[in-house]
Amino acid sequence: MTLAARNVRWAAGRTVIVDGVTVAVRPGQTLGLIGPNGSGKSSLIRLLAGLRLPVAGEVVLDDTPIGRFGRRDLARRVAVLEQHALTEAHVTVLDVVSLGRTPHRSALSLWTDNDDRIVSDALSQVGLENRRDQYWHTLSGGERQRVQLARALAQTPSCLILDEPTNHLDIQHQIEILRLVAGLPLTTIIAIHDLNLAVRFCDTIAVLSGGRLVTSGEPMEVLTEALIADVFGVEAHISTSGLHGRLHIQFAM
Amino acid sequence: MRRSRAAVWGIGLGGAALTAACLLLAIAAGVSIGEMPIPMETIFGTLTNRLGLTTLRLPRIQEAIIWDYRLSRSLVAAVCGAGLALCGAILQALLRNPLAEPYVLGISAGASTGAVGIMLLGLGSGAVSLSAGAFAGALVAFAFVVFLSSGRQTADRTILAGVAASQLFNALTSYIVSTSANAEQARNVMFWLLGSFAGVRWPDLALSASVVTACFLVCIWHARALDAFTFGEDAARSLGIAVQRIRIVLLVITALMTATLVSMVGTIGFVGLVIPHAARFVVGHGHIRLLPTCALVGALFMVLADIVSRVAVAPQSLPVGVVTALVGVPFFSIILYRARRST
């Protein structure tokens, strides 16, 4: 499934946050959105997910504007993982993952064996099948994100949108989550802070600055020392890693 | 170990049947207990007589007391408890705030201002126009709270907005009472404001039961959507929920229930707070089970509170709001204390 933003623009009050951005991700590939704080990554993510409506331009899913899909219809195709899901409710892992079935169920339909199977599969994909009765508030940050990922998978989407899903995690759990996501056969868009992780896990990268798209393409072509100096304002040294053969970015401190 | 779905439903239905049986017993006790104690067989005899099933010879006065006063009173208490508990459950889910309920958010205060306005300023009369005035007041209070707490919606802001709304509308009510009521009216209004089932009769039951039943069905229809609010509005939206529409529908439903009940029996606080939390302990967070549980347990609680209000300082009776507050405030404190530890 192809997801694309065409010339989208979004403003909060009079402040333009996303200013005529065009990005696209091909079926099964992973697009990374990078850029400094306030560059419009999160807002673009919300536009792509259909959580906000652009004031100009459009977001299309397989060439159909997402506004043409019903809400539930869209939620069966596109799942969203937020930075930091919070709740005070006393819910279990199973409760949270079961929420993923919401767009597939009508107001009064009963829980089916099929729902059961999909939720169990989602739990085992993130390695939490033995924790289904544990309470949300007893989980660590990394486990919570895995539960939310399982919830997203239970939506059986073809497209996954993630807004800095590893922001609050230590490096081990960052890699764990990103590996899980990269291993999924889904079209994925991910806003991500860490440039080395972006290089490692994304097929293409789009660089945002001040709400505008600076450039996009394969990480090898896009990420240059000049671009990093320009967009992030830091001096970087880029080499090819002897470990994985991809780019390795070091920062002058 | 996981129980099968059939077993879970079995346990749930068994629990519901048990609670319903307790509710019936409590209502029977509520009819039996009072200044003139009436034996159970007279109560059931009166019921079967009135329903045309029997033609037993019973003491006239007792039969009249049962049918014209106590039964309608107990049933209205049950409906009020169910309605207020539902309001609390809905508000807590929608606003994602464990302390939300009509009384704390000032919605009840708004409704009483509306009702008192109708009553004392003589704008129309009768139960329906009283409810309409209360509904208008409740909506204004709602709008006020939503407006004050809009933007970054945190638990604290919503509660602060509720405090402001309560103060404002209570002040308005006092203003209306002190400028336009005579001493007798003022005394009645003040007693009514604290919550009392003393004046309710069959027409009140018809109105409140139909409103609460209709609202309950709407809430059940949206139960699954309420679950989706667990992680906030954006999360709900991304699960395919029409957030804006559901918010408006359910907030109006809550205002309608609160207004109908307040205009009938005054402001009764804390039921909406206590019952949903207690119900969650038993059946968990899923609204498809939580909402019916709240309705049943709320009804049971209020019928018992009404009995306590009549026997605690007999022969005088306490306002029922006093009883619910005496139970509710300690409970409120526990929730506050737990919230302090978890953050």
Strands of the largest sheet of chain A, in order across it? 6-7-8-3-9-10
Can you identify the CATH superfamily of chain A?
P-loop containing nucleotide triphosphate hydrolases
Structural class of chain B: mainly alpha
**E-strand count of chain B:** 0
Distance linking N and C termini of chain A: 41 Å
Radius of gyration of chain B: 20 Å
CATH class of chain B: Mainly Alpha
Give a description of the structure.
The complex is a heterodimer of chains A (253) and B (343). By secondary structure, chain A is an alpha/beta fold. Chain A has one domain: P-loop containing nucleotide triphosphate hydrolases (Rossmann fold, 3-Layer(aba) Sandwich). Helices cover 31% and strands 28% of the residues of chain A. In chain A, the strands form 3 sheets. Chain A has a 6-stranded mixed sheet with strand order 6-7-8-3-9-10, sandwiched between helices. In chain A, a hairpin with a 2-residue loop joins β4 and β5. The model of chain A has no long low-confidence stretch (mean pLDDT 90). Chain B is mainly alpha-helical and 343 residues long. Helices cover 77% and strands 0% of the residues of chain B. In chain B, α2 packs across α3. The chains are: A alpha/beta (253), B mainly alpha (343). Chains A and B meet through α2 and β6 of A and α9 and α10 of B. Chain A: This is Petrobactin import ATP-binding protein FpuD. Chain A: It holds the Pfam family ABC_tran. Chain A: Keywords: ATP-binding, Nucleotide-binding.
